[in-house]
User: Fold these one by one.
Assistant:
Number 1:
Amino acid sequence: MTLREQVTMQPRRLQRLAPVFLTLVALLTLPTATRAQQVPTGQACVDCHSKLKDQRLSAPARNFKADIHAQKGFTCLDCHGNVTHHGSDPRDITPTVGFLTRPGRRDIPAMCGRCHSDAAFMKRYNPMLRTDQLSEYRTSVHGKRLFEMGDTVVATCIDCHPAHNILPPTDPASSVYPTHVAKTCGRCHADSTRMAPYHIPTNQVKLWSASVHGEDMLKKGDLSAPTCNNCHGNHGAAPPGVADVPHVCGQCHATVADFFAANGHDSIFTANKLPGCVTCHSNHGIVLPTDSLLAVRARTVCAKCHDPNSPAGRQFLVMQTLIDSLLIEQANSQRLLDQANYLGMDVSQAQFDLSDVTTALTKARTAIHSFRADSVAPQIKAGLTTANNAAVQGQAAQFQQVTLNTLQLQLLLQNQPAVTVSGSGT
């Protein structure tokens, strides 16, 4: 390029840069108060939005005060970014400066993950809090559909943890407090319209609420009873696979799971696409099992593979007979002890010993999951021995009382003072 060309282009270059220089000069010469007003604080957001008539804009500002993030000192700007220009018109926001008005559903996990995936940062607020939520979410059914299929209807962070009103999970008012988890999941999964494209049932919450697990939690207040996330996971939520069901149930029912795994039926069930425990007990609508179910399962489940009249097909019926025999002896022993107690005899030790029969029954019912009567029989035998001993003590106490009553009657007839026999309650 010649010197003439260079000289000719210089004014054009200056002309292009002139607007930039003018903008910089204007910004530098703005009054300090004006520049400060362009970057509102988080409290300024709350003050302004809480007064707006549009509930979509004012409700979040009012709710945020109780939010765990507000309690820890976070403000609106920590999630929504900074505002360098905000005029009188609420829509007058410059998006190019990084201000996030309402994040897209696909962007929400990453936005929450900016903090919750940073172990060093989260340690400052709660050293015990896990920081793998985003990683887990990517493995969930929700996460896979969101990131791999672009399905923005699936649940993201804010569907379980309502934005601007997030409470600690230990707070009884929290959306993820144990008694509220099913309701939170049900906001989507009980919505037939929302679930229609996925062709999955919408009665899970109703079934669970009436199940033994739901009643334990909702009616008895047992917070250790399983709810949705105990079986499906939370951030990594997914339905258990056929082979996984015994391991999921085994988190609580460990001994039962051991019996089931030891008998070899776990692999048989998996090979036949039978989901272990669910095959007999169902999933969401689990009811408290009764001994009579053994005969029912023998006809419905066992009969799928075993001839009902074969030794294998009759195992459940044999086990039911064994359990019934112990229940009969337990009731008989309890009756004898109650009669002795009514007569005034001290049978407290025998009554205490009889409680071991309940333990034996529990062990026998657990051993049912071996699908072998010879695993149940030892527990029944131990229970029968205990029940028989209690019955003997009850009969002996009654005989002693009858003998005492007879002796007292004879003495009264002879006008002699009554005597007290050791062991009598009189």
Note: The chain has 24 helices and no strands.
Number 2:
Amino acid sequence: MFRGQYIKNVFFLITGTAAAQLINIAFMPFITRIFGPESLGGLGYYSSLLSLLIPLAALCYPLAIILPAKRVEASALFEISLKIAVVISLIIGFSLYGYEYFFKRLIIFDRSYFIIPLGVFLSVLVMAYTQWAISCGQYRLISLVTVLVALVGGIGKVFMGYLFPTTITLVLINLFTVIISAIILSFKTSVSIKLDGLLYLRKRDYVIAKKYLRFAVYRTPHAMMAVISQTAPVFLLTIFYGAQYAGYFVLTKTILSAPVMLVGKAIYDVSFPKITQRYNQGLPNLVFVKSTTLALFALSSLPLIIIFLFGEEMFLIVFGPSWEMSGTYAVWMTLWFSFNLSNKAISAAVSVYEMDGFLFYNGVLNMILSISGFFVGLIYFNSHVASVALFSLFGIVAQIVLIVKVIWVISKSDQLIILNERKG
């Protein structure tokens, strides 16, 4: 029965994410013929900056919402996440305003000091609602919201793009879809927000925040380093080669990340509570984690081979002659995304087995290796293709280290469980 419920939950999430990704991919050939590489690169720059700031904005406390057995404690984590997000979003806004006032625009469009903090806060709000929905088993709701947002975003980019084919159009549509997600989730989840409650801290907040402090201390810097490792090429390509090359990377990442979003996120979202429940019940997890990881490796092997052999031709035909370089990037990035997909059950087990400290140091290693790879391509080859290729290949090393370490820790834990059962 438990296994059947797990499969059902995975089905709901995969179905919704699959539909959303198919919608996104279906709109991309139209979007790439309306917006040039520079505009897509601008959106990628904005999205990358947002991704970097979101973990900091809530100190990763939304990720802890799923852990408490009591709803009261989970509700407190929800409120703590939003309180932190309000303060940090305001700090981000004033900082951007001061920087633009005294120096120059950090972002390539006006009023970034308003749009970015708003995007950060709303994204944290959606993350908190999503984690609450997961803890309540509302997987169907998450799927429906994912599909609706993808559809609205795709239609908006195509329709508004014909009228205003600029970077700011893409950014505002992105922000609008986040607002839609927040509104729907707020009406369909059982958790409520009291605006006056966000303005002050209770003694309970300090107690709960301290209990889950490891998320702020370890998960936040790790999440930011992971984002840097994932999005650094957008910033670095823009700085050293130009926004056009960042646009090529954004398209490649959008297409190759589809299976990661399609299967990987669904596996993570469902594996986390499953591994947590089994751990709390004193049951072994090694077989589940290993089999899930191996299955995801097998699943990613076929598309990896196809893109490696025919990536350039596929991007040229589907997205137009301006985007052939994205296919060249794809040839080198496929293996990187294969590991990103395959380690989702591994990542889900990290907090359960209290390995957040190791995850932090692994994130440091991943960031150093990935960025070093980019600069090796820049300094020794002076080639954007070499920079992207070496960035991807160097980044695989830390993922292998993480997989090996987590499997070893789980196997040791399972051995103790088996030993105690024999003694009992």
Note: The chain has a mean pLDDT of 85.
